[in-house]
Specification:
There is one protein chain. By secondary structure, the chain is α/β, with parallel strands linked by helices. Helices cover 32% and strands 19% of the residues. It contains seven helices and seven strands. It has a seven-stranded parallel beta sheet with strand order 3-2-1-4-5-7-6. The chain is globular. The N and C termini lie far apart (51 Å).
Length: 220
């Protein structure tokens, strides 16, 4: 079975933590077919005015993935009318790529998972893919487990690297895949004129500087 992995988010900007998620998948899942970054158009839970234009976020992702031929940017949500709902994105993915639910994994951070019950058409996502949750400090493994027990008590939760990989409906929590970089911190550093390049790859840092993204009006 081939894994098609979808990783949704604002990617505003894409940073080394995001790339670490993709790299983990490439190292640990030999069945990986493609890792797809799915930048959001207008997220239903976020203020659309607090979002860098789509063409900039797409360009930064493309630059970040230049040396990762097994990863790509899928612009499905960027070209759709707002709002963008994950469950509909998954349906369109299956239609476009002719995949089965047991071939598709949707990746999210533990912080996002704690809001999963508020997502549109929850929990129909679990009919369309296996959900994979990575560690996102300060959210603990115990918090994820407690949340899962409350909101998805009938769905199996696997902790670690299950073999064989579970088919839907299932949630996999991977504690050793951890991301502790915040895009908010990068944007704040840019606005305040502080260093930020350590959090992003050089091509993305150069892009941010070239187009003066996230810089406050006072510093333009």
């Amino acid at each position: 079975m081939s894994d098609w992995v979808l990783f949704g988010g604002r990617f505003d900007p894409v940073h080394r933590g995001h790339l670490a998620v993709a790299d983990w998948w490439y190292r640990h899942r030999p069945s990986l077919q493609k890792f797809l970054f799915v930048p959001s158009g207008t997220p239903p839970h976020r203020d659309p005015t607090d979002l860098t234009p789509a063409h900039h976020r797409f360009a930064m992702l493309a630059l970040a993935l230049q040396d990762r031929p097994w990863a790509m940017v899928w612009d499905d949500e960027l070209v759709r009318p707002a709002p963008a709902y994950t469950v509909e994105t998954l349906r369109r993915f299956h239609q476009a790529w002719r995949t089965r639910p047991d071939q598709v994994v949707f990746v999210m951070g533990a912080d996002a998972y704690l809001t999963f019950h508020t997502w549109y058409e929850f929990p129909r996502h679990l009919d369309l893919c296996t959900v994979c949750v990575f560690h996102r400090p300060p959210v603990s493994v115990e918090q994820v487990q407690a949340y899962h027990t409350t909101h998805l008590p009938s769905v199996p939760l696997y902790v670690g690297h299950p073999e064989p990989w579970p088919s839907p409906p299932a949630v996999v929590l991977i504690p050793d895949l951890s991301v502790d970089i915040q895009a908010t911190a990068i944007r704040d550093a840019c606005r305040q004129g502080r260093p930020f390049a350590q959090w992003v790859v050089p091509a993305v840092a150069a892009y941010i500087q070239r187009y003066r993204l996230y810089v406050s009006e006072a510093l333009r």
